[in-house]
Design brief:
This protein is mainly alpha-helical and 326 residues long. The chain has one domain. 65% of the residues lie in helices and 3% in strands. The chain contains 13 helices and three strands. It has a three-stranded antiparallel beta sheet, with no helix packed on it. A hairpin with a 4-residue loop joins strand 1 (33-36) and strand 2 (41-43). Helix 2 runs antiparallel to helix 3 and helix 5 packs across helix 6. The protein is globular and about 60 Å long.
């Protein structure tokens, strides 16, 4: 993909993200308002804006690069993950949804005859990933390769990437930085994956200042969509062995997240901690009110990017399939 088109996709994503965030903020100020641990107001408008800006640019860039299947997959995965993520951001913040977190919470809700907002998101991300995987796998099949296998591998990469990026959305700017790091190598290609990487780069760069400044946050809508688009880019770029390897790695990260705090690992690793703190405001916690170190409450209370609805109970959030609270 020519450098001019990569730059064009990034610029389109950045402009569209900025315009969308202003429009969403004006249209839904109350529904997307949250209060962070500092007692300051933040908005979730960043999430839908990033999802829309990145998806529009990814679809446009992929189509211009002569990769129509990648364009279709990006549209389905990006918008699908954003829609169900936004649903969980809004509905999942309601008091009756507080205990329906993680797979255990979703199963308990089903046993009680309820469908949790998180379960809707899990199903929606999975279904959109399957549809995107089928779009990528369609077309000529040299050597009689199995459509089902290729589609399944692509879907696993897309859904896994959506969830893993969301797992990192626990501190200001962290998920956006992860997106930029993954998009960098992908942007060097010549196919639709380069357009997707450029789109993610532009959208993330546009959203980063307000996210780091704790004026806005991605939420599930933005983090899931950003990850899903990166998953489409990876699946489009890699062959079957590469997709299988990435899928295994993503599944491993999701399994590890059930037992290991990524935040704790980052804090203990000097290089990762320096990157994580780059551009962020100094941490602010009240020692007298701080819960015991390593407890779930400590993870949520100390998280500058963890937020709750105004005048509502604290919300740990729902990062994605199989993930812990945010």
């Amino acid at each position: 993909m020519p450098p001019a088109r990569r730059i064009g996709a990034a610029v389109l994503a950045a402009v569209a993200t900025g315009a969308a965030q202003r429009a969403v903020s004006r249209s839904f100020p109350a529904a997307l308002a949250r209060t962070n641990h500092r007692g300051e107001s933040v908005t979730l408008a960043e999430g839908p804006a990033v999802a829309l800006g990145a998806t529009v640019a990814a679809v446009t860039g992929s189509a211009l690069a002569g990769a129509p299947r990648t364009a279709v997959a990006a549209a389905v995965a990006g918008l699908g993950a954003a829609a169900v993520g936004a649903y969980d951001d809004v509905v999942g913040a309601r008091p009756e949804q507080k205990r329906d977190k993680g797979f255990a919470g979703h199963l308990r809700a089903l046993q009680e005859g309820r469908v949790s907002a998180g379960a809707v998101k899990v199903a929606g991300v999975g279904l959109s990933a399957v549809a995107a995987g089928l779009a990528l796998a369609a077309g000529p099949r040299p050597g009689g390769r199995s459509l089902a296998v290729d589609a399944a591998l692509s879907a696993t990469v897309i859904a896994g990437a959506a969830n893993v990026v969301n797992l990192f959305d626990l501190r200001p700017g962290r998920a956006l930085k992860v997106g930029l790091l993954v998009a960098g190598p992908l942007a060097a290609g010549r196919d639709g994956s380069a357009a997707i990487a450029s789109a993610v780069t532009g959208a993330a760069a546009a959203a980063l200042p307000d996210d780091l400044g704790e004026r806005s946050m991605l939420g599930d809508a933005g983090a899931n969509a950003l990850g899903a688009l990166l998953g489409v880019g990876l699946a489009a770029r890699l062959g079957r062995p590469g997709r299988a390897l990435v899928a295994a790695g993503l599944i491993g990260l999701m399994a590890a997240s059930e037992r290991v705090s990524f935040t704790a690992v980052i804090a203990r690793t000097p290089a990762l901690n320096a990157l994580d703190m780059l551009g962020r405001r100094p941490a602010h916690t009240l020692a007298a009110e701080a819960p015991a170190a390593g407890s779930p409450a400590a993870e949520v209370t100390a998280a500058p990017n963890a937020a709750e609805p105004i005048a509502a109970e604290p919300n740990a959030g729902e990062p994605g399939p199989g993930a812990g609270g945010r």
